[in-house]
Automatic annotation (TrEMBL), chain A:
Principal subcellular localization: membrane
GO cellular component: ATP-binding cassette (ABC) transporter complex, substrate-binding subunit-containing; maltose transport complex
Species whose genome carries this gene: Consotaella salsifontis
Ligase as UniProt keyword: no
Lineage: Bacteria, Pseudomonadati, Pseudomonadota, Alphaproteobacteria, Hyphomicrobiales
Subcellular location: Cell inner membrane
PANTHER family named in the record: MALTODEXTRIN IMPORT ATP-BINDING PROTEIN MSMX, MALTOSE_MALTODEXTRIN IMPORT ATP-BINDING PROTEIN MALK
Membrane association type: Peripheral membrane protein
Any one GO MF annotation of this record: ATP binding
Family, per entry: Belongs to the ABC transporter superfamily.
Protein name: Sorbitol ABC transporter ATP-binding protein /mannitol ABC transporter ATP-binding protein
Automatic annotation (TrEMBL), chain B:
InterPro entries the UniProt entry points to: MetI-like, MetI-like_sf
Recorded family membership: Belongs to the binding-protein-dependent transport system permease family.
Domain ABC transmembrane type-1 positions: 69-280
Assigned keywords, A-Z: Cell membrane, Membrane, Transmembrane, Transmembrane helix, Transport
Organism this protein belongs to: Consotaella salsifontis
Membrane topology summary: Multi-pass membrane protein
Gene3D superfamilies according to UniProt: MetI-like
Protein name: Sorbitol/mannitol transport system permease protein
GO cellular component: plasma membrane
TrEMBL record, chain C:
Organism: Consotaella salsifontis
Name the record gives this protein: Sorbitol ABC transporter membrane protein /mannitol ABC transporter membrane protein
Similarity remark: Belongs to the binding-protein-dependent transport system permease family.
InterPro entries: BP-dep_ABC_trans_perm, MetI-like, MetI-like_sf
Keywords recorded for this protein, A-Z: Cell membrane, Membrane, Transmembrane, Transmembrane helix, Transport
Coiled coil: none
A GO-annotated cellular component: plasma membrane
Length: 333, 290, 276
């Protein structure tokens, strides 16, 4: 368990600056998610914390100790990779026990800890199998087992769920949250999927082009995005951005409104449009409404909506739930 | 993608290989270059003296030199044509479905395991010998006069022997490449109405181009220094009919003990090999980027 | 998906493939058969194919006259020695190039391969003289050194292509799990690369076993491997077909058997890792 602090952490590959200087503190026991579009530097940042890459400048502290120049093995962090990175020539037991073997623990101790980890992860029946004989979800669990077995100060996850199918992903999300609740160890989790970020994180760090756009709890980010980027990135379906005329009336350069904060009516309202595709999810319906030749607004409405393609509709944004942004894209509060 | 520490380790670990190869390249090369400017014969030790470009003058004006360059190219070119064309055909054949695929493949790759001296001797004596060879017997059966291969068509005979040794290599590489061709591509072409011939020329051959490049490159490296086959069959003869550059330099330096002249020949051989290599790389270099 | 092929087509291809396969293999088959004949039968006309008096006398004669086992042992020491030494030097180098690639990695690799472009004859004389002065002529040590350096670029290249197939994440995982460089290579990289290393080993043993420029020029009686031993049959003993065949069979049999037993690794190795 430990707190991790980054001070002005910078990474350059040759002339290209990937991370221009990041300050971030992660509290002991927090579940922190780095989220952002691909190429935003989130994986690089994770690898810097892991020690798999050198920082070009700046300091990384774990529990108050400077580990900037420490080898990955000595930082006391465990990592779960996107490809799981299981050792194909070792059995499940061999894989889970490898970090302990490297730490020079006795055979009996290794065996005991491996069994304990396998029991928590439902892997007891597979201990003698090779990774290639396992399903994707089982491999994922082995990778997690290998990480938890040596009781690290913190866990690093690099898009660990992206190779699983949708149903399994939902399951593993729950299991990981459960694991965190049990272990109460600091976890840093990298993903490009904002749903994963929203569902699991205590604290989300939104990254874009190597710098931090906003740090906060999922609901803070959802309700009070600092800027246009966060507003557009967090939330599904995406926030709608309304044009300059409407924005000017509210004293902003851009105004955003979430799909669930728009009333849709067949009779009257503020903005006239034509109903396009309606996505029925059962509980909700997302209606895509064309309001101008090149503008579409997504509206969330009840599951039993009976709008048809081509119907004329009226939209009314909820004036109290508008997000206003200035010309630089900063939120106006 | 790594840390400064691992980069330093990497440099350390690569250095033995680099230093050894550097030494292996530079030391003999420098010595060859140095000897080539000396009058230096092993039969007359202690008589070494500076000769300037005399050795080169002798070597390059020797008619045997031009003949040797030509013979070298003839040998390399002949073997390359036979093995590439034969290799493509054999690969296409082995890629078909038939009984005993594994066994036939073993038979086809076997010549690669045979050392050059053995294959040359077996071909020379047991097949190409005009009196007791198997080919002479076959000629007799068909009522033809026996043909003395190594006397009447010496270069062609050597090309045949060397091609036999290298055909398995070409076949295997091309077969491996052929098997990596996505069969859906061929089926799509078939749906588009392409005949077998056009499928071969428009899809299979382009797919094989990288493998063909590899075959040509690797074989050229080995074929430029063909030596043993010539030594045990013809000794470079009759006359100089089968004396390639390698053999010429060998004769000059180790049979006539003319270190200076031999070294000059060696330098010329290196220059020529590099010209061929550069030429090859230019011609097919694009295919190697991957 | 392999398509079902009509039986007639399959029979046709079976016949063609076997005829061609046997034709290519025939010189070897004929050599092996002849080695069991008497000298008279070996040159009999018409040649007898299977119906002759099988005899082993050629083999004993060959051993008696020229100590086959000495040359066999030389071949084993030289080919295995040079390959193993080459691997020891090449594995770390290939590791560096595959897992810590820098801007120059490709150039270094290309340069290494280009040393193969240097025709051996170009450096024959200095090597010959250096070996003469160092007392390495006609020694196994000398040949091991030369063949190691000859094949080093190929070994590095092959290992590099195999190592590159190993995902870097696995090595990083090992690093996170507390493995140092030594543990990483011993416990993770080497076991995972065994098939590739095996192919490399096999191919290079074969290349070294059959190498016939340096072995012919740098050895005489003591260190001569089988290539040079056979070359001594070039004349006039080559006219004794049965004995030539027996000697030849003994020279190629070890590699032929090794090759057939390890066909899968070898086929992979034969492509020099250049074609997948």
């Amino acid at each position: 368990m430990s707190a991790i602090t980054l001070k002005n952490v910078t990474k350059r590959f040759g002339d290209v600056t990937v991370i221009p200087g990041i300050d971030l503190s992660i509290e002991d026991g927090e579940f922190v998610v780095f989220v952002g579009p691909s190429g935003c530097g989130k994986s690089t940042l994770l690898r810097l914390i892991a020690g798999l890459e050198d920082v070009s400048a700046g300091v990384i502290d774990i529990d108050g100790a400077d580990v900037t120049g420490t080898a990955p093995a000595k930082r006391g962090l465990a990592m779960v990779f996107q490809s799981y990175a299981l050792y194909p020539h070792m059995s499940v037991a061999g894989n889970i026990g490898f970090p302990l073997r490297m730490a020079g623990e006795s055979k009996e101790a290794i065996d005991k800890k491996v069994r304990a980890a396998a029991a928590t992860l439902n892997l007891t029946d597979y201990l003698h199998r090779k990774p290639r004989e396992l399903s994707g979800g089982q491999r994922q669990r082995v990778a997690i087992g290998r990480a938890i077995v040596r009781e690290p100060k913190g866990f690093l996850f690099d898009e660990p769920l992206s190779n699983l199918d949708a149903a399994l992903r939902v399951n593993m999300r729950l299991e990981l949250s459960e694991l965190h609740a049990q272990l109460k160890t600091t976890m840093i989790y990298v993903t490009h999927d904002q749903v994963e970020a929203m569902t699991m994180a205590d604290k989300i760090v939104v990254l874009n082009r190597g710098h931090i756009e906003q740090v906060g709890s999922p609901l803070t980010l959802y309700n009070k995005p600092d800027n246009l980027f966060v507003a557009g990135f967090i939330g599904s379906p995406k926030m709608n951005f309304l044009g300059p005329t409407y924005a000017k009336e509210h004293g902003a350069a851009t105004v955003g409104v979430r799909p669930e904060h728009i009333k849709i009516s067949k009779e009257s309202g503020l903005i006239k449009g034509t109903a396009g595709v309606a996505e029925h999810l059962g509980s909700d319906t997302f209606v895509h409404v064309h309001v101008a030749p090149d503008q579409m607004i997504t509206v969330r409405t009840s599951g039993d909506s009976v709008l048809r393609h081509g119907d004329t509709v009226w939209l009314t944004p909820d004036e109290d739930r508008l997000h206003r942004f200035d010309a630089q894209g900063k939120a106006i509060r | 993608m790594a840390t400064e520490h691992s980069r330093a380790t990497a440099r350390l670990m690569i250095s033995p290989a680099v230093l050894l190869l550097l030494a292996w390249m530079i030391v003999p090369l420098a010595l060859t270059l140095y000897f080539s400017f000396l009058r230096y014969n092993l039969l007359m030790p202690g008589m070494e003296e500076w000769a300037g470009f005399l050795n080169y003058k002798f070597f390059l004006t020797d008619p045997a030199f031009f003949s040797a360059v030509w013979k070298t190219l003839e040998l390399v070119g002949g073997v390359l044509i036979i093995t590439v064309v034969g290799g493509i055909l054999l690969a296409l054949l082995l890629d078909q479905q038939f009984w005993g695929q594994g066994a036939v493949r073993i038979l086809v790759i076997a010549p690669f395991f045979v050392m050059p001296t053995v294959s040359a001797l077996v071909w020379k004596n047991m097949f190409m010998n005009p009196v007791n060879g198997l080919f002479a017997y076959l000629a007799k059966v068909f009522g033809l006069p026996p043909f003395d291969f190594l006397a009447q068509a010496p270069m062609l005979s050597i090309i045949m022997i060397v091609a036999w040794e290298w055909l398995p290599f070409a076949t295997l590489i091309l077969l491996t490449a052929l098997q990596s061709l996505d069969s859906e591509q061929l089926e799509a072409a078939e749906m588009d109405g392409a005949s077998f011939i056009s499928r071969f020329f428009y899809i299979v051959l382009p797919h094989l181009s990288r493998a063909i490049t590899v075959v040509i490159l690797i074989q050229t490296i080995f074929l430029l220094s063909t030596f043993a086959e010539i030594l045990v069959t013809t000794n470079g003869g009759p006359g100089t009919a089968t004396t390639n550059l390698t053999y010429l330099v060998y004769v000059q330096s180790l049979l006539q003990f003319d270190v200076g002249g031999g070294s000059a020949g060696g330098v010329v051989a290196i220059i020529l090999a590099n010209i061929v290599a550069i030429f090859l790389m230019r011609m097919i270099g694009k295919n190697l980027d991957a | 998906m392999a398509r079902a092929v009509s039986t007639r087509r399959k029979i046709t291809f079976t016949v063609i493939a076997w005829v061609i396969g046997i034709a290519i293999f025939f010189p070897i088959l004929w050599t092996i058969l002849t080695s069991f004949k008497t000298e008279g039968e070996a040159i009999a006309s018409p040649p007898s194919f299977l119906f002759f008096d099988w005899t082993l006398e050629n083999y004993t004669t060959v051993q008696e006259r020229s100590n086959y086992f000495l040359h066999f042992w030389n071949s084993v020491v030289i080919s295995l020695g040079s390959t193993v030494l080459g691997l020891i030097i090449a594995i770390p180098a290939a590791w560096s190039m595959a897992f810590v690639p820098g801007k120059r990695t490709k150039d270094v690799l290309m340069w290494m391969l280009s040393t193969k472009m240097l025709p051996p004859v170009g450096v024959l004389i200095p090597i010959y003289l250096l070996f003469r002065d160092a007392g390495l002529l006609d020694t196994r040590t000398g040949l091991v050194v030369v063949l190691t350096l000859m094949n080093l670029p190929i070994i590095v290249w092959m290992l590099y292509t195999y190592f590159r197939e190993i995902p870097g994440e696995i090595l990083e995982a090992a690093r996170m799990d507390g493995a140092g460089l030594r543990e990483e290579i011993i416990y993770i990289l080497t076991p995972m690369a065994v098939p590739g290393i095996a192919s490399t080993l096999l191919l290079n043993v074969i290349l070294a076993w059959n190498e016939a420029f340096w072995t012919l020029n740098l050895t005489a009686a003591n260190a001569a491997p089988l290539t040079a031993f056979i070359a001594s049959y070039s004349s006039p003993e080559g006219l004794f077909y049965a004995k030539l065949s027996a000697a030849s069979t003994m020279a190629i049999a070890p590699i032929l058997i090794l090759g057939w037993f390890s066909q899968k690794q070898l086929v992979r190795g034969l492509t020099f890792g250049a074609v997948k």
